[in-house]
Design brief:
This protein is an all-alpha fold. 64% of the residues lie in helices and 0% in strands.
């Protein structure tokens, strides 16, 4: 799994746990819904750490909390 996929999966899991839809996440984070939907697109490979931080802020969690999961620890190298 690539880091982008892990980030998207983590946001989707958090939203599912909290009963939040993508539009609500965007509103909480102060970003446009298109930003959230674009992040989830399989065509998009890169994500901005600033966008991730804003989404985390909207969810009232730190970057450390967000990335502190076994999935991120087990990621393979992105360099190919």
């Amino acid at each position: 799994m690539f880091v982008k996929d892990a980030v998207v999966r983590r946001f989707m899991d958090i939203c599912r746990q909290r009963g939040i839809k993508a539009n609500e996440l965007a509103n909480l984070a102060g970003v446009t819904p298109s930003t959230v939907y674009s992040m989830m697109s399989e065509k998009r490979r890169d994500l901005s750490i600033i966008t991730i931080k804003k989404l985390c802020d909207g969810l009232d969690m730190s970057l450390g909390e967000f990335f502190s999961t076994p999935e991120f620890d087990a990621l393979e190298q992105e360099i190919r």
